[in-house]
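Subject: Beta-phosphoglucomutase

B.,
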Amino acid sequence: FIDAVVFDLDGVITDTAHYHFLAWRDLAREINIDIDEMFNERLKGVSRMASLELILQEGNRQNDFSLSEKEEMAEKKNQHYCQFLKQLTPHDILPGIIELITAIKSEGVPIGLASVSRNASTVLKALQLEDTFDYVVDASKVKKSKPDPEIFLTACNQLEANPKRSIGIEDASAGIDSIKASEMFAVGVGNTLFKSDYQVDATNELNWEVIKAEYIKSV
Ligand code: B16
Ligand code: MG
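Prediction pasted inline below.
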């Protein structure tokens, strides 16, 4: 009765969200803008250039740089982020994720990945998950970033799944909006994702039987 489950990457499969934060924080400091973990919530699930724009707005410096200067800044942040990715191993898969994926697959339900990151394939390789998902949608395959539904709809389409009978799992507010706009059932990881259909505090609380039961209650 469930067609497919589509996972977000950063913050659901692994905690690269923290590395994104460290890299943006250092870049922002160089131009005298301070960002903290709370501000970082707004960058989750948001594309690289859009994240930079939000940071510049935060420091009231949105008109201070040319496009090529912004591209240089985004590139610098990415190089720093990629340094962190070199340390990534399968040990960095978040608790409960392998168990969840195993339970879903044992019922023959296909799984997809929806990440707006251009580094998604590098991250999957480092985690040794490159062959785990039946279909991966990354930044190269979509025009519009989350919260637009395009990324989750593309995943459902490729998995031949009806979005209304599919589940999306996200840690970002923009991601939950994207899932809801796709008419999928939204599972939120984190305690501020109020628009989720079902919410857990952390990945170790993700349980396939419970998720299915919550989905059934909603239909
Ligand atoms: P990159 P997700 C998103 O990945 C991150 O949540 C977001 O913080 C990041 O800015 C974005 O990817 C772009 O990443 O700079 O590597 O292309 O959560 O959709 O897996
Ligand atoms: Mg995420």
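The chain has nine helices and six strands.

T.
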